[in-house]
User: Fold these one by one.
Assistant:
Number 1:
Amino acid sequence: MPQGEGETVRLRPPRNTLNERAVGWWRAQWLLMTAAPVVPLAVLGALIEPARFWLLLPAAVLAAAGTATAVLFPLWWFRTHRWEVTEDAVYVLTGFFWQEWRIAPMSRIQTVDTVRGPLEQLFRLATVTVTTASAKGAVRIEGLDHEVAADLAERLTRITRDTPGDAT
């Protein structure tokens, strides 16, 4: 039932988690970002003998830090990302130390997009982006199974079509 004027909408913590494959997707992204500086440093270290130590040392440090981060952070992110869609709003909760709730009322939604980058396609995942007129930007739900994302985009489109616009 839509909320009447002046009524407060109370949102519970979002129930939905991301797909477990998001952990692998985040790890792959992190390892690719780590490889970008490590590979050139390692290649140059192998080729330039006088500078070998000064090139291979940072390559090893970056590789170790990047690998540790790729192992630990995605698990942490998976545990802290939640999302929910009700008849009134789309909302996303992210973060552990700095928690951020992003709420998009259905009456404010302008567009709903589904995006699948190359890595997302490899992991059979997708991102649903809900755009509003907010200065903070769009609400993004990343790491969804691609079929769940398609169903969600369809559902959001249907709900927003049936929701009267906000005149304020």
Note: The helical segments are 21-47, 52-80, 118-122, 146-162.
Number 2:
Amino acid sequence: MLMRTDPFREMDRIVQQLSGSSGTWSKPSVMPMDAYRQGDEYVIAFDLPGVSTEAIDIDVERNMLTVKAERRPTRTSDGVQMELSERPLGVFSRQIMLADTLDTERIEADYDAGVLTLRIPIAERAKPRKISIGGESGRKQISD
């Protein structure tokens, strides 16, 4: 039910890791994610450790889901000299094309322990339903 919109995104992520570059608003870094179906909803979990909820932006336009986040450097006092900085900083983004069978009007978002979790219900019209056959007239009736 989900499609990646850019097949080269994973290669970009690897290049960014090797080069040590951080994402910018014009060229954001990719954020890792998991997506799976759980009952009557799809669940998408994004890793965003160290990002405050105020720095996360979630948009849906038609069936395109966009998640953007920004992690800024932690503020240090004047006398601090950074010895090692490996945690990625900058802008992170992910776009996902959602299927028509998902109800984009009822998406729920939770953020806990550095993981943004989106729950997207499957639309009622996409759920399986039983079709019964009527009497001798052969009329069919759809039931939920």
Note: The first strand starts at residue 2 and ends at 4.
Number 3:
Amino acid sequence: MCVPSPHGCDDLLPGCAHAIRTFREILDRHLRSRPDDYLASFRFLLATEQQYHWSAVLGDFSDDFYRVACPHCAVDVTIAIGAYGRYSAIRDWHLGDVDRRELRPADPAALSGVGRRMHETAVRDGQGSLADGIAHLFGHAECPHCASVFNVAEEYTSANRPVM
């Protein structure tokens, strides 16, 4: 599964709806077995749900960085979610991540849409690190420059979603 393509092959997808549904069910059962290839299978499952953006960019949150522009002042903000911390910062070539601000994870009960589905699946399958990373990804960050607060996933999606 991959992102939509401008080469005409997307015309084949409507005729494959049953096969895609079947593949989604197989993937979901596979995930419940907690396989070694969990993240790859999780991303394939997202693609079968037409969540191509998250299928392409979601990492394991061991060392993930997402770059977004602050929606209020347009400064480049680095979002870090991994074992080293969960924060927003201004990235400086010489100094590294400066003026770090802790991320505010989403309350899992308040998640909706794809964020809720992703989180619930990870929790169901005992993938605690993935579930925690998703809560932070769909949570809020504070801009180190202007101190405004914004939703990380919304800003990242609006800046990086493939054109359909």
Note: The mean pLDDT is 89.
Number 4:
Amino acid sequence: MQEPRRLNRDDLDERRIIYPESPDRNLVNRFRQLRTQLLEVSNNTNFSLVVTGAVEGAGASFMSVNLAAAFAFDQSKTALLVDCNLRYPSLHSLLDIMPDAGLTDFIEDPEYDIGRIIYPTGIPRLRLIPAGSRRESPSEFFTSWRMEEFISAIRERYPDRFIILDTSSIADSPDARILTELCDYTMLVVPHGKVTTTQVENAVGGIDPNKFVGAILNA
């Protein structure tokens, strides 16, 4: 497995990834507050969270990686980031990782060890499962029993870890809707000034209200 390049502060600033000493205190505090709110919802227990956009390009990946980084701030907590956007995977590039395998490889092969697709990111206490090989019909993967097995496997392997799944837009593909059924909570990312009220309402309507933790405006 590739050993990641340790991202320095300039790298993180360029990628808009938060870290405890980041000069962008507004951004850091925004994600710390969001982390606190999610912990209140979960009664301070670990959880799995789907982060999806109201439309494509809403900024779900930006929200996912920074929320995971915020959980990793705490030395008593760890975070696992999973790139479930099989159409447009981006987290491995954002974190400067060249993966040999990923989520699709685990789902395709019943004998695949999940440990082979978990990568250190160079950010303390934060790990990544990349998307893996791109596929023409990614929703077929998420409907398979292997996806359920994947969720169970990462829960069992890391019972104290916060798991964040970055997905395609809930409006543009069935992927996010399928994943919301398998996870504890769902958060919707709404791009400022780029969607209509109807689009947001339709996106919210596709999420189980018992799992919906709210919409986040991404400016």
Note: Residues 5 and 96 are 7 Å apart (CA to CA).
